[in-house]
Write a structure and sequence with these properties.
Blueprint (H helix, E strand, L loop, with lengths): L4 H65 L3 H9 L6 H9 L6 E7 L5 E4 L13 H7 L4 E6 L6 E10 L5 E9 L1 H8 L7 E7 L4 E4 L14 H10 L11 H6 L6 E8 L4 E10 L4 E8 L1 H36 L3 H12 L14 H78 L4 E6 L4 E4 L2 H6 L3 H4 L16 H13 L4 E8 L5 E12 L5 E10 L1 H36 L8 H32 L7 E3 L1 H18 L3 E5 L7 E3 L1 H17 L6 E8 L4 E7 L20 H6 L7 H12 L2 E7 L3 E8 L15
Parallel strand pairs: 17-19
Antiparallel strand pairs: 1-2, 1-5, 3-4, 4-5, 6-7, 6-10, 8-9, 9-10, 11-12, 11-15, 13-14, 14-15, 16-18, 19-20, 20-22, 21-22
Helix pairs in contact: 1-8, 14-15, 15-19, 16-17, 17-19
Length: about 775
């Protein structure tokens, strides 16, 4: 059922007024409740502060009385003299401090726990050594505690303080037991209605309450340790929990006066608690108030406001009904005109109605709308005619496009034939890759294998199914035998630098056998330079390595065997030259000199071959010791200076003023200096110069040996560190070199963690550079040292 506009407006006004009124009533109720509540909180805060200060003053006064008592000579002297139990004079002195009868007893306890004297004679001779307040005072700590008295069975507050002798030793403990009513009288005078007061200890046990049923109960559930400590004070009393667990758990965090709201399910009421710490947390003062009175006051205000709003809504509805009835009469004319328009009569035109500006504007808008509808009909008819003509033209265009598509299909067919031919070529390429003797794999950008050829299983022992989907280089497959730094460098080269890696890798087959491969791993990039795939080709060079090792071992064995006859030749030649076998003529001496020099070259060659074999077999040792690099350089320079002087070559030395000692193997460093310096002198023409520079840099210690000799041809520079290689221009001028010196130096630098490189130009000279780590050489275990 649809409502009229008049009824809808009236109901809307009533609904909005009532809704707004209810909202206002709730807001005022909440606001007034908070005002009353905050007012009461301020009252409780002030009362809590006042009561806690009064309690602290009482406790502090008693402490001052006790502090005065323990230093009095008429108390200390009798104890030092060993007075007997309940000495009359001491008892009278103790009684003088019980001002106003506030204390149940004032007594002195000896170190063994026995009461020496007391204002209450029933205490004398009894042992209170088990009490915590006695134990703490005996350890030099003045303390305040409460518990049920052993003698009286009543609650008491116990103040204890050590009594010191004239020499500073603890000779007794003085105790004042305060009557609980002396404190509780301050707590009973609460100046607020419907408010209860509680005094609780640090464990949450109620010592005093205006509600007697709360006394000796805990605010909440105590844990085992708290129950034991509270029970030691109130022996024989069952400490049951109250409803204030949230306050029990928050006692240790109380600062100033804090408030808690707790819902009492039994009374179906919301209560709030004001809590204040007393004597630094030894006690807590709690004031408990009910919130029902504040809700009642706030509710009365809300009811009055709600009634006024309801009457206002009723009166507003009557007035609005009368006004709307008069304002809506002109709309009937608009309704009749709209019905004619809906039947297709667009000649309708409505005259102005009523005196309302808004209704006349509506009539004007209605007339404009009818005119626009009429114009729209005429425009639509015109557009339909134009679009029909366009459709005819488009049909012709479609026929032309159909012919063009047929031509395209013919071109596509030709491309299809080309694709088939390409597929055949790719199939041939795939067969060639699948049956290649080298191990070929393709991985994604993260190293996960997506293709492997047949040689994978032949070389590694793993089937394609075991390889696909797994990461290459991990220990699950054939990788993981190289050092972690090797794999990090390999990955950085191919993924980050996007360069190809070419080198030897040591792997393990599925059956556990080790093998070596010569690997080439290249990244495949997309048009944006991003890595898409990696292609890896590995050739098994295990057999070649074994052959190289056998050759090296043969060279080592042969060199060892040659050393003995060479040493004999050297020895006999020296004997002949020294005349041990008789004097020789000049011609004989010349021939023996040639034998001796030739034998020396042979010894050098054998020593070089032995060094090469030890480097390649890995049997040579590195034994670094702390020493000065410059001292070794000076010895090497002295050795070549004779050779340099013969050619009038000047050796220039550039050493740093200060250079710390580092770990060096003297023999290896000497070999490096000796080889590079002798080469520089040998291949530098007469009157040339050689510059030896040593300096410390951030990355290490740099050694450079520069000459202005014949240099190294550019086309042969990439072979300079290979075994037995000598440049063409060097072989023409000096036929006695072995081609092993630079190879040995390169192998040594690789083993000790250093670097060697050079810069050279033919007929302009060469500069060899060596970079040693700042930490020096790394130690290496071995069986042989280099010669």
């Amino acid at each position: 059922m649809k409502l009229s506009l008049k009824t809808s407006i009236i109901f809307s006004v009533i609904f909005i007024t009532v809704f707004f009124g209810i909202g206002m009533a709730f807001s005022i109720f909440s606001y007034s409740k908070n005002i009353f509540l905050e007012y009461e909180r301020n009252n409780i805060r002030a009362v809590t502060e006042s009561m806690s200060n009064e309690i602290e003053q009482v406790f502090q006064h008693t402490r001052q009385v006790l502090e005065t008592l323990v230093v009095q000579d008429h108390i200390v002297s009798p104890i030092e003299e060993g007075v007997g139990f309940q000495d009359l004079e001491m008892a009278q002195h103790l009684e003088q401090y019980n001002i106003g009868g506030a204390y149940s007893a004032i007594y002195v306890i000896l170190p063994d726990g026995t009461t020496l004297a007391s204002t209450d004679e029933t205490f004398v001779g009894k042992n209170y050594g088990f009490r915590d307040y006695f134990k703490k005072a005996l350890n030099g700590e003045a303390t305040l505690d409460f518990s049920l008295g052993v003698t009286s069975g009543k609650l008491g507050y116990y103040f204890s303080h050590p009594i010191y002798s004239s020499k500073g030793n603890i000779i007794a403990v003085a105790v004042i037991k305060m009557k609980p009513e002396f404190i509780h009288k301050y707590l009973e005078k609460v100046p607020l209605q419907d408010t209860d007061v509680l005094l609780v200890d640090e464990y949450g046990v109620v010592i005093f309450s205006s509600r007697s049923e709360y006394i000796f109960k805990s605010l909440g559930v105590l844990d085992i340790k708290e129950a034991e400590k509270a029970g030691s004070r109130l022996k024989g009393i069952d400490i049951s929990p109250l409803k204030y667990t949230i306050l029990q758990e928050s006692l240790s965090d109380i600062q100033g006066v804090e408030f808690f709201e707790i819902y009492d399910e039994g009374d179906n009421e919301l209560e709030f608690l004001g809590v204040k710490k007393v004597l630094g947390g030894l006690f807590f003062l709690v004031l408990e108030g009910e919130q029902k009175s504040y809700f009642s006051n706030a509710s009365q205000i809300s009811y009055i406001l709600g009634g006024l709003i309801f009457l206002g809504a009723l009166l507003s509805s009557i007035i609005i009904s009368i006004l709307i009835t008069r304002l809506l009469r002109p709309l009937k004319a608009l309704h009749k005109a709209s019905l004619r328009v809906s039947e297709g009569d667009l000649s309708v035109k409505i005259r102005s109605v009523g005196n309302s500006k808004e209704l006349n504007e509506l009539v004007s808008t209605f007339n404009i709308m009818i005119k626009n509808v009429k114009d729209s009909r005429e425009n639509i008819t015109k557009e339909i005619k134009e679009k029909t003509e366009k459709i005819i033209h488009r049909e012709k265009d479609l026929q032309d496009q159909q012919s063009a598509i047929l031509n395209i299909l013919e071109d596509v067919e030709e491309e299809k034939e080309k694709s088939v031919d390409l597929a055949r070529d790719l199939e041939k390429f795939q067969l060639a890759v699948e049956n290649a003797s080298d191990h070929i794999i393709i991985t994604d950008a993260e190293g996960i294998t997506i293709y492997a050829n047949n040689a994978v299983e032949k070389i590694t022992g793993y089937s394609k199914e075991e390889v696909l989907g797994k990461k290459v280089g991990n220990k699950e497959l054939w990788g993981g035998l190289m050092e972690q730094k090797f794999y990090e460098k390999l990955w950085d080269t191919i993924k980050n630098k996007k360069e190809s890696f070419i080198g030897n890798i040591h792997n393990k087959r599925k059956n556990g056998d080790d093998y070596d491969v010569f690997a080439s791993i290249s990244p495949v990039l997309d048009k944006n330079g991003k890595v898409v795939f990696f292609v890896g080709i590995e050739r098994d060079v295990t057999q070649e390595k074994l052959i190289d090792q056998a050759k090296t071992e043969f060279v080592s064995l042969a060199s060892h065997q040659l050393r003995t006859p060479l040493s004999a030749i050297n020895w006999y030649a020296e004997m002949l030259l020294n005349g041990d076998a008789g004097k020789m003529n000049a011609e004989q001496s010349m021939h023996v000199q040639e034998i001796y020099r030739g034998n020396q070259r042979m010894v050098e060659l054998v020593n070089s071959l032995l060094n090469v074999s030890r480097l390649e077999l890995g049997t040579f040792m590195i034994e670094p010791q702390k020493m000065q690099l410059i001292d070794i350089a000076k010895e090497a320079v002295e050795e070549v200076e004779i050779q340099a002087a013969q050619k009038k070559i000047k050796i220039i030395k550039k050493y740093p003023k200060v250079l710390k000692e580092i770990d060096l193997d003297k023999k290896l460093i000497y070999i490096i200096f000796q080889n590079l310096l002798s080469n520089a002198v040998k291949y530098t023409p007469e009157k040339g110069k050689v510059i030896l520079t040593i300096k410390k840099e951030k990355t290490g210690i740099l050694i450079s040996i520069k000459d202005n000799g014949m240099g190294i041809p550019k086309s042969q520079q990439n072979k300079i560190f290979t075994k037995l290689f000598r440049a063409d221009n060097v072989r023409e001028t000096d036929t006695e070199g072995t081609g092993l010196g630079l190879y040995i130096i390169k192998q040594i630098m690789d083993q000790v963690g250093g670097k060697i490189w050079f810069e050279s130009a033919k007929n302009k000279g060469t500069t060899f550079s060596i970079l040693l780590p700042l930490t020096g050489m790394r130690k290496k275990e071995g069986t042989k040292s280099l010669s």
